[in-house]
Amino acid sequence: MPKSGKVKTPGKGRAHPSADAPAREAWGLLSSLVYPPPFAAIARELDLRPAAFGTLRMLDRPRTMSEVAGALQCDNSNVTGIVDSLEEKGLARRRASEEDRRVKLIELTAEGRRVHARLSKAFATPPAWVDSLARADQQALRDILQRAVAARTPGP
Fold first, then answer.
1. Is residue 85 included in any domain, yes or no?
2. SS3 for 87-128, per residue?
3. Among 24, 40, 96, 150, which is least packed, fewest CB within 10 Å?
4. What pTM did the predictor assign?
5. 6-58: per-residue pLDDT in tens?
6. Does residue 6 lie in a domain region?
């Protein structure tokens, strides 16, 4: 068997479809558990689109438009609309950087900090399906997910 652990189909040079079954099954199970996320109700309540929700969540400190664009994997021009929507809702504001007045920082307003704290609490609270697992299973799941995060390659 090749190092990859995949069974080669004779003459095709490709892995046999059933070799991917455990990965597909694991992903199917995991995605059904994590989507839709329990905190999506907060985003709906605030009428936040996913990009605005993600931006709000990452504003634990003031961030440049470029930082937000990089995290969201989009152009700076897209961030302008996202920040516009957060400003309209009174959750964030723009200000010039003290180091370089050409650079705009996005920071939370008092209301934005309140919502951010609520989101942080929601993200930190394990869903019932994780809490219901035995401690050893929780640890095994954590360890597997840590390896998966470490193996993840950057990019879309």
1. yes
2. HHCCCEEEEECCCCCCCEEEEECHHHHHHHHHHHHHHHCCCH
3. 150
4. 0.70
5. 444 444 444 555 668 898 998 888 888 887 777 778 888 888 888 898 899 99
6. no
